[in-house]
Design goal:
Elements (H helix, E strand, L loop, with lengths): L12 E4 H11 L4 E4 L6 H10 L6 E4 L3 H13 L4 E6 H17 L5 E7 L14 H6 L3 E2 L4 H18 L3 E6 H4 L2 E4 L24 H19 L6 E3 L6 E5 L2 H13 L5 E5 L8 H8 L4 E5 L5 H13 L7 E3 L14 H12 L8 H9 L15 H16 L4 E3 L17 E3 L5 H9 L11 E6 H17 L5 E6 L28 H7 L3 E5 L4 H12 L5 E6 L3 H6 L5 E5 L14 H6 L4 E4 L4 E4 L19 E8 L2 E5 L4
Parallel strand pairs: 2-3, 2-4, 4-5, 5-7, 6-7, 10-11, 10-12, 12-13, 14-15, 14-16, 16-17, 17-19, 18-19
Antiparallel strand pairs: 1-8, 9-11, 20-23, 21-22, 23-24
Helix pairs in contact: 1-2, 1-6, 3-4, 9-12, 10-11, 14-18, 15-16
Length: about 650
């Protein structure tokens, strides 16, 4: 496995940003690693789990981010170096423990990696997790390249142990998922002895003195940051414009200035040690220029802190003109890009549009080259059957019911692929939590049935608590657990119900049905491929009251495909299919929308795309003409036609 290569100075080791973070952790002597899957962070734990086969380290996917942080902290308390990784949403989950941990301090080096998602590429938000570093009073490092990701992670363990506190590293999607040649270093000898020192307890009392000690630790980190190689300046001694940047935005700034030919006029100060700011170094550069541009994602974290610091310096640095999010020159949300910064810097210098048409050139190159593609469930996805059954049950009930959604593949239910049934999506577990509230509004005239959905991994992460809340408060809640036996949204990582750990070890799976029954709620199970029967069960459960659970159990189509595939070969009987004149107005391709079902423009009829269709067979239920035919695959090359089941 390349990630555990011992060859020092191997410059041709091509690593993804997340792999570089994992390599840096190994070089830093990590022995305990935990996290919860969530793009763009998932590959960190996956890489470390693969390395655990050859190194004396322990790696786990925890039940959620808070537990992951607590487990890693236990290793630190016992004197071991530990890493915990998550996406920005996960930092919210662990924040209650984090803000207490930073008062108690740590022993073994402890590093928190947050992979943020500017632009919400794979997230419901684009939250900037850096604020938690300031809120918690801990050092924050921001790498700009995979090489820096490795170097910062390795050094973060030393920093953590030198100040006896946790250190935070912030990556972003573009860094986590980019690839670059990385210079590696020797791996350390890993022979730790875990032991908790009962004479040095870790707690937060008395609070004020612990808070004062935390501030002193942060001051120590600030002193170290002044000479850090992770902070650098490129440009003239007295620039006309000073760009203060961090992370990937530094790459964009460097590229933009080069494209505009302004290397002799623009200075770029990269801050890798984002919090606390290297104030002496920062003051030095602030004195050289009266125009400051801030390039960072997502929130004005550096911008606000630098402005505050400059205000404290007053006449020492003079009056400045700031270009940033506050001034409206830099977009207040979304990702930055070279094209964006070319436009901003070009405006500052009055460079004509003709000389900075980078964005137009790129747009022209890709115009009409990328076909339109909508969000959709995979062919054979059981969630399509689940939402079809939900839609059918709600229409049959006819009380203006709706779905309170959650985070996972089934979030796509907000779009036509899920028949637009999902009406709200927030944080993991919030669908059931909201349903708890809806379920107590009857006394105020609320009479709409509410169905809430969550996946199996989400149920373990954050769905159990709201279900218990519904039982405790007798809330009228119908929870559909869409159990596809995978954490499919983030890459099929194992969870407590799959029977395997992150390191590939067998484990006794937690039975969701038994878990729900143990708290005294009504539990039933159905097959989402059997849409008619499932719709009937949902309809019947909607008529009942109190907390109810229906487990829709069917493996993710991608998992099923790997494990042997599906039993049918599908085709459309062209004699039975009468196209748009059948009265359904292309119900199969316009409404059901499985990508394996397509409309043949020449014949004006439906047909099966044999390249895409997986053979799950559920589309046979939805054609009013019975034109979609299942052929049972008995043996290779032999099939038996089955009649229409609808």
């Amino acid at each position: 496995m390349k990630i555990i290569s011992q060859k020092k100075g191997e410059v041709d080791l091509l690593l993804q940003g997340n792999e570089a973070i994992a390599r840096g952790a190994i070089e830093g002597g990590v022995i305990f690693c935990s996290g919860y899957p969530g793009n763009p962070s998932s590959e960190i734990i996956e890489t470390l789990a693969g390395a655990a086969n050859d190194l004396p380290i322990y790696v786990e996917w925890s039940i959620n981010e808070k537990v992951a942080m607590e487990a890693a902290t236990a290793a630190s308390f016992a004197g071991c170096r530990a890493l915990v990784s998550m996406k920005q949403n996960g930092v919210n989950v662990t924040s209650d423990f984090l803000t207490n941990l930073t008062l108690s301090g740590t022993k073994g080096g402890l590093v928190l990696v947050s992979c943020d998602d500017p632009g919400g590429i794979s997230s419901t938000n684009e939250e900037d997790a850096r604020i938690f570093a300031k809120l918690s009073g801990i050092p924050l490092l921001e790498p700009a390249t995979p090489q820096e990701a490795l170097e910062m992670t390795r050094w973060a363990f030393e920093l953590s142990e030198s100040i006896k506190n946790i250190v935070m590293i912030r990556s972003v999607s573009r860094l986590s998922h980019t690839r670059s040649n990385v210079l590696i270093h020797d791996l350390p000898d890993l022979n730790p002895k875990a032991c908790f020192d009962t004479g040095a307890p870790f707690h937060t009392f008395p609070v004020v003195s612990k808070h004062r000690a935390r501030n002193e630790k942060l001051n120590t980190a600030a002193e170290l940051f002044e000479n850090s190689p992770f902070n650098r300046y490129d440009g003239p001694d007295k620039p006309d414009l000073l760009v203060i940047s961090s992370g990937c935005s530094w790459n964009y700034a460097m590229e933009s200035v080069k494209i505009l030919g302004l290397e002799g006029k623009v200075g770029i100060f990269k801050i890798g040690t984002t919090w606390p700011l290297p104030k002496t170094l920062l003051a030095k550069h602030l004195k050289t220029c009266d125009q400051i541009l801030f390039a960072e994602e997502t929130d004005p974290f550096i911008e606000d802190n630098v402005k505050s610091f400059a205000s404290d310096l007053g006449k020492g640095v003079g009056l400045k003109t700031y270009f940033g999010k506050a001034s409206g020159d830099v977009p207040s949300c979304g990702e930055l890009s070279p094209a964006c910064l070319i436009e901003i810097i070009g405006n500052i210098f009055g460079i004509s549009h003709k000389n900075r048409s980078y964005r137009d050139k790129i747009s022209a190159l890709i115009k009409n080259s990328v076909p339109p593609r909508e969000f959709g469930f995979c062919p054979g996805c059981p969630h399509r059957g689940s939402f079809y059954a939900i839609k059918t049950a709600l229409l049959r009930d006819n009380r203006n019911g709706f779905v309170s959604g959650d985070i996972g593949c089934y979030t796509l239910g907000i779009w036509p692929t899920g028949f637009s049934q999902v009406k709200s999506v927030h944080a993991m577990g919030s669908g059931a939590g909201l349903a708890c509230g809806y379920g107590k509004l009857e006394q105020f005239g609320f009479d709409q049935p509410v169905i809430t959905v969550c996946g199996d991994s989400t149920f373990f992460h954050a769905g159990i608590a709201p279900l218990i809340n519904a039982k405790f408060n007798s809330s009228d809640i119908l929870l559909l657990i869409l159990d596809n036996s995978a954490t499919a949204m983030t890459g099929f990582q194992p969870h407590p119900g799959t029977g395997i750990t992150a390191m590939g070890h067998s484990a006794e799976p937690v039975d969701i049905e038994k878990l729900c029954r143990s708290i005294g709620v009504t539990v039933k199970e159905a097959d989402p491929y059997d849409m008619e029967n499932t719709a009937g069960m949902i309809y019947d459960l909607m008529k009942k009251s109190g907390p109810r659970v229906l487990i829709l159990k069917r493996k993710c189509a991608l998992v099923q495909g790997r494990e042997g595939g599906f039993p049918y070969r599908m085709h459309v009987d062209q004699d039975k299919c009468i196209g748009e004149v059948c009265g359904c107005n292309r119900y199969c391709t316009r409404i059901f929308r499985c990508p394996g079902l397509i409309r043949d423009e020449q014949t004006q009829k439906a047909r099966i795309d044999e390249v895409i269709c997986v053979g799950c067979g559920i589309c046979a239920d939805i054609c009013p003409q019975g034109a979609i035919i299942q052929e049972k695959i008995d043996e290779p090359g032999i099939s038996t036609s089955l009649p229409y089941k609808g």
